[in-house]
Structure formats: C-alpha cells, structure tokens
Amino acid sequence: MFSVLRNRNFALLWIGQLISIIGDWLLVLALPFYIFDLTNSTLATGGMFIATSVPRLLLGSLGGVFADRWDRRTMMIVTDLLRAAILLLLLLVHSVSWLWLIYTVALLESAISQFFAPAKGALVPQIVASEELVTANSLDSFSEAVTRLLGPTLGGALYALFGIISIVTIDSSSYLISALLIFLIAFRPLTAQQSAPAVEQSQVTPKTIWLKLWHELVDGLHLVRKDQLLRTIFAGMGVMMIAEGIIEVLLVAFTKQILHGNASTLGWIMAAQGVGALLASIFSQQVIRLFQPRYLLMLSFGIIGLLLIVVFNVSIFAVALIVMAIAGALIVWAMVTAQTLMQKAVADSYRGRVFGAYSTVLSLMVLIGMGIASAFTGLLGTTILLDISGIIFALSALLFIKMPAASLTTPETPLA
C-alpha cells in the first residue's frame, strides 16, 4: 500500500492531508467542549454542528463546479490559507458574549472546505496512475483511520492541559503546512480544466457568470443522471447514509440503554470501529481486487445490515466491539471502491462536479437519517429505530444489483 508514496506528488498531498486531518480532529473534539464550558448548554453546543452541516448541503456541488473551472492545486492552496486565517479568529473568544464568532468561524471554515474536497477528489487521478488509484484511496482511508483514533485522544489531552488556544494554533498551522506541501506538487494540469469558451468582456456580468455556473452544475448532474454506474453509486451510498445518520444520533442511547454502559463504553465502541477501519485500509488493495466492485458493495452493506440487527438486539459488549470492528472494515472497502469507480469512470473535466454532487447527496442523506432518529425515537423506541437502520443498510445492498460490471484494475473510458 505504501508503494504509491514513491510518487512524489501524491506523497506531498498525502502527508499534507495527514497533518491537516490530525489538526481537524483535535478541533472536532475540543471546540464542542469549549462551547459547553462557556455556556453549560447542550443546545449551544449543537449549534456548532448545525453551522458546520449547512454548508455541505448548500455549497458542495458549487465547489465541484469551481474545481472543474480552476486549477485544482491553486484552489486547494487558497482554501488551506483561508482556513488557517479564519481559525485564528477563535483566539478572540474569551466569554459567552463571543459565541456568535465561534459559530461564524465554524460556518466559514466548513463552507471553504466544500471547495477543497471536490478539488482533491478530482486532483488525485491527475497525479496518480489509473492502476494505482485503489492503492492511493486506500492510503487516504488509512490516514483517516489513524487520525480518527489518535486525534480525539490527543485533542482531549491538549485541551485539558493548555486550553483552546493550543488547539486552534495547531489546527491553523496544519493548514499552512498542507498549503506548503501542495504548493510543492509539480505537474502539468490537463487543459480540459481551462477549456471553457471565451466570453466577450462586455458580456461578463454577475448574471452571466451565475448562469454559466448554474449550467455547468446542471451539466454535471445530468451526467450522473444519465449514467447507470454513477446513478447506482449515488443511490446505494445515499440510502446507506440514511442508516448512518440514524446510528450517529442513537449511538449514545444504544450504549446506555442496550449495553448499559457509559462514556467509556462508547469510547471503546468507536475505537473498535477505528481499528477495523485501520486494518481494512492496510489490506484494501488485496481485498478489493478479489471481488467485482458491485459484489463487494453488495456484500459489505448486506453483511453490515445483518450484523447490526444482531448487535442491536443482543446486549453483549464483546459482540458489539466485534461487530463495530467488522463494520468499520467493510465501510472502508465500500467507500474506497465507490470513490475509485467514480475517479476512473468520469472524465477529468467533470470530476469536480461529480464529487461535489456526491458530497452533497451523502450529507443530505445523513441529515435525513438524523431527522428520522430525532423525530421518531420517542414514538418507536431506540431498538426499533436501530433495527430499521440495519434494514436500510441491507436494502442499500440491493440497489447495487443492477450496477454495471466494472473493473478497478483496468483502464476505463471516461464519461465526457
């Protein structure tokens, strides 16, 4: 898996992202605690999560449009620099009267990130050979799993010892390091990115600019709609994320009501999922190449659905740990498979829009799942809703039955 790091450009991108994601995980844990310390309010703490979620719905697809119009490397550098600067505003917060600034920073940081993510997803196939995409995406999953395991623990320790200032400084610095490493990437951008028809200067108005952006966005969505492979991936992964949203909301209730555990129990469950994801990332290349993509996606979500139904109805802590570890591994293999399929199937000039739309769809479906859990827990109960999430996982597997046969080991003819 680590052989792809011999590719200098990818190594620079990967190391920069590893550092940046560690910084993000520090803040993900520390900032909610900081808000609660200031306000002693769970409602105020929840406001931060709302502030970070809204831009994913509103700007994910738009970020993809710009990723297809602009030089992606430059776009990623600029977004990293902006995020580094914006985070420093948190250093001004010293009392509850500045709570609005925390929400503003969270909103802006999330909004800017919506321009970075599709650019990165579209850039990787430009700097990595087609036959190495599975390995590159597996290594990305590895870094995410490692940082997910280490970041919250380190963030909690730093916050307890040095306060929010240390976290903000480290996260801001991580963006600067990422920007520097991306700046050192050397490659010739494909001309397709800059092939938009020239427009007379007199015709350039805010209205024409927004109309052009809108048409490009619709053009990308049309590509997803007309292609069965993309359509199936969006549908299957989207339905799965509804189940994920339900579980995210009810995970604490599952720990307390079904496992009769506490915060430490929940920590072990999350760690088990992280360990499963970490091990899966190491062996992704070998496992993914054993199966046709559609069969791997079907098996992953089908097995997860069945295992979740079992664990939600059996209050055995050891069983929960094993199931969560297996689920963590299967999710990684499914995500890497879906991402690689899209990278190989879509032409470079459309990749940003496709990945932007993909991010928006998944974020929307997670919020739908969270809404279902929040609205119906009192009516149906925790166990029934969690069982429904397992059923949804299993049903999402069925959506991949009609996915066209595809290979991750051979070159594809990209969709124009």
From TrEMBL:
Xref: PROSITE patterns: MFS (PS50850)
Topology in membrane: Multi-pass membrane protein
UniProt cross-references to Pfam families, sorted A to Z: MFS_3
Keyword annotations: Cell membrane, Membrane, Transmembrane, Transmembrane helix, Transport
The protein, known as: MFS transporter
Entries under CDD domains matching the protein: MFS_MefA_like (cd06173)
Positions of transmembrane segments: 12-36, 48-69, 81-103, 157-187, 233-254, 266-283, 318-342, 354-373, 379-401
Annotated compartments: Cell membrane
The organism of origin for this protein: Dictyobacter formicarum
Major facilitator superfamily (MFS) profile domain sequence ranges: 1-190, 229-416
